[in-house]
Amino acid sequence: MHCDLQQLRRNLKNRRASLHPAEIASASLTVAATFWCLPCVQRVSNIGIYMAVAGEIDCEPLIKMGWLRKKRIFAPVLAKNKLKFAPLNPDSKLLPNRFDILEPVYSNSDLIGPRQLNIAIVPLLAFDIQLNRIGMGAGYYDRTFAFTKRQKNWRHPLLIGAAYSFQQ
Question: What are the C-alpha distances in Å from 126 to residues 8, 10, 37, 80, 114?
Fold first, then answer.
């Protein structure tokens, strides 16, 4: 099974990386428009996003629509073996982390934990019919949001995966 998972990850990474920029842009706009029509999104204030790499659905349209709606947008930053979230504003300076993923420049006092998010948009390589997620393999999102699996009555964040249909 482990080899199959590695092969699945490789195949999906290659397929996603081969997408034309116009396909990515179109899918990203569709995801953003769909997201903002969800009833559960209307009253939330803190939304976590991810910074897209290698053909992932780009959160930029969703972010811009969020700012127009006066939502607080947070981007992940590496914090040891988990993620914390830094405010992302139109004037935020972005720098690449050790995985070459952009992160906002932040001060520690600005960081929030995952429990402070109302909704978190998460990247993925694959998902199944039960909405189980397969990520890139480093486990950052799994460790960061592990509490959602351990607690029966957690309320937030609501985790929403952003993906192309071929990733199912």
Answer: 9, 11, 24, 25, 22
pLDDT, tens digit (0-9, with 9 covering 90-100), for 35-79: 999 998 989 999 999 999 889 999 999 999 999 999 999 999 998
pLDDT in tens, 141-151: 888 888 777 76
Q: Could you count the other beta carbons within 10 Å of the beta carbon of residue 71? A: 19
Alpha helices, DSSP H only, in the chain?
2-17, 21-37, 60-68, 140-144, 147-150
- DSSP annotation string for 2-22: HHHHHHHHHHHHHHHHTS-HH
Identify the residue whose tokens are 């699945």: 8
* 94 and 103 Cβ atoms separated by less than 8 Å: yes
